[in-house]
Amino acid sequence: MEEILNETQKTVTKESCAMSAILPTMRTRTLFLAAVVIAAAFLPATGKTAEYQPPTPSQQVATVEYAWHDAARERDVPVKIYYPAKGKGPFPVIIFSHGLGRSREGYEYLGRYWAGCGYVSVHLQHHGSDDAVWRDAASIPEAAEAMKDAVADVSNAINRAKDVSFAIDELTKLNKETDFPLHGELDLAEIGMSGHSFGGWTTTAMAGEDFGPGKPSLGDPRVKAAVAMSAPVPPLADRKGAFEKITIPIFYMTGTLDNSPLGETTAAERRILFEGTNHAETCLVIFNGADHMTFSGHLIPRASDAPFQRLICIASTAFWDAYLRGDGAAKDWLYNGGFAKLLGDQGTFEKKLP
Hints:
Elements: H1 3-9, H2 24-42, E1 61-70, E2 75-84, E3 91-97, H3 108-116, E4 120-124, H4 132-135, H5 140-152, H6 154-174, E5 186-196, H7 198-207, E6 223-229, E7 250-257, H8 272-276, E8 282-291, H9 305-324, H10 328-335, H11 338-343, E9 347-352
Parallel strand pairs: 3-4, 3-5, 5-6, 6-7, 7-8
Antiparallel strand pairs: 1-2, 2-4, 8-9
């Protein structure tokens, strides 16, 4: 949520039958085969790894932009949608929430990759915490202060979550419109949620983060899986149990240098979210040498970010394949050594499958 300041400062049917009348030799063979089937049922599901190839974009990608208006909140929600230009749906949908000080134009590398792999990636712009916060600032200190004020305003956080639910409503309407390029092709039963930094917070909120007694949930049950990048941790007093109510699959991503430029979350603290999520299929990747800006892309691109962004794209798409497409081979590849092998010494990967 602090990208601009950092720029300026430097996840055999077991079939048994009674065989009492069969010859001893046949009995022995039958028992042996049954033992093999039973044993296979309890072995780790590693056999499918070779069947799944890490996803790469194979479809032409198109984009369309909308300026939606939420009359109930008197609030505009601009969006940019990346989608497969050809091919037949239904296409699962991913909602993406940008970091503080960014816009719907950011994180293009993710939108194009996911759309190229057959997903519809909907990038929201959140007024009150977008690039308008800092663009008119007369100096760096003034821009930094404006960014801090935007984060401190609780209404900005709440509106981010409401923007997501509103966007899903609008997509439901849009899917019925004949002039929409993907008319009837959105699979709105399979929605993923992702975001970076402040958008990472938006992601955990939509996944069901608990904000404490008396505070309502901002989650939306239409979200089926989530990828949270550089998500911040709650204040110390609010951390206990904050992620216990998350039950949808969630992939946390961070880096060893992922310290918040605004200072509220250290790189080491970001694993607290993974450790506190105990009732969902959960994984964590920590990229060695990746910082907070690696996930968003620097305003001045760095060659060192490209290998990490490739891994971010591959791992997240495998996660979407597993949970939005029900691809068991993708899940097996992700959790049982395929991704870890690809990752190598570029990071560490952990999982929890309760």
